[in-house]
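So, can you check this record?

>
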Amino acid sequence: MRTFFISDIHGNFCVFKKLIDYVKFDPSKDHLVIGGDMINRGPRSAHVLQWAKEHTTKYPETIHILAGNHEEMMIWFMHELSPIWMEFGGDDTIRSFKKAYGDENGWDVAEQYASWVETLPLTFEDEHAIYTHAGIDISAEKENQPRDILWINKKDLKEINQQVLTSWSNGKRIYRGHNPYSAVHMDGQFVHCDLGSGIFDEDRAALALVEVNQNRYFRCTMEGEVSVHEIEGT
């Protein structure tokens, strides 16, 4: 059984699919955790959400979808709590829904998916590791994490007491996205997996599909070129 983690797809469905196909991902055997920020900025957010919902419904034991802060902004917008979603790519997401489902139906379908992402968990744990979008709160139980963890930044992680963190996590690595880097790397117990899809310039941005139990990752550029690398710092 292989276990993969990917985060911060940001609407780049074709790149995501390229990675999944490259490793010959088999949901009947392999496990996949998607660490949030599936939407915004890229051209095919609707397709990413559609794939995620369909596959986790069909394979609930092997595919696990987590919420990210971009899904949180979508939820706020749909509940008329904040307009901030439109400042960070919400218009791209709505455009992709209208393109996929038609101008008349696109908005309604987007609202339906917003209701679904509102039910997504914030973290997931298996025998290998703990997975989250941005971070964790060691003052709270694993099963009752506050939604604030969707916004934790790398500087906040540095302030976590390492001894307490090790006890809280039972020494497991914690895989995350949220903050973009040029390579997947390990810093303490955190493995940073966001390669800047939707953030970095086109020639620098990439997606990483991390093979958790092999300490390696598959990097795909926005042009669809795939390469294999070891996780730095392991």
